[in-house]
Specification:
The protein is mostly helical. 66% of the residues lie in helices and 2% in strands. The chain has 7 helices and 2 strands, in the order ββααααααα. It has a two-stranded antiparallel sheet. The longest helix is centred in the middle third of the chain and has 44 residues, at 79-122. It starts with 13 loop residues before the first strand and ends with a helix.
Amino acid sequence: RRVLIVGVLAAAGQGLSMNTDELVFVPVSLAQSMFNSNTLFRIMIEAHSREAIDAAKAQITEIIKLRHEGELDVTVITQDAVLATFDRLLSALTLGVAGIAAISLAVAGILVMNVMLVSVTQRTAEIGLLKALGATGSGIRAVFLTEAVLLSFTGAVVGYVLGLLGAAMIRQLYPTFPAYPPDWAVLAGLGTALVTGILFGVMPARRAAQLDPVQALSKR
């Protein structure tokens, strides 16, 4: 078929598993002749504004009913409906990821608590010596809470760096995919790690603060 090219669209890349740079727009009559068909699979209509979408959808529905003997045998889909579907999918994925993250935080918190309990056990004599020299229970508690927070913060920073490396790899493999973590997510991750360290470090810190200095020194 010989056709006259009247314009070339700007490059848009891939979207929804379709390369829009490979699209060719031809008149409807020519397409029906080329594919030996007298029907249309899809009609794309552009509204003047977002506010006019509902009115345009109602008008399109009425026109199709009039031309199809009162029967609405097509599905009218708007961008809002597509976006709502994606929002529901993303919400489900977000809940799933949140559940996995909650389990991971619980496991990480238990690990932090176990590490700190082992640390208290191994440093019993040191704690007794500090108490014998005048250290208060609140001071001992603050020391172990600080260690728990530092342990959690170190893990959060390592996870953040690994996340950045993973996002960079995704951007290299899929240049059109915006794999950039939002600032609020980074701050929330670091803050959650610190809170987890504090919560799961309370019990080991209290145990260290409640040790009797005489009994602790006798275990040297």
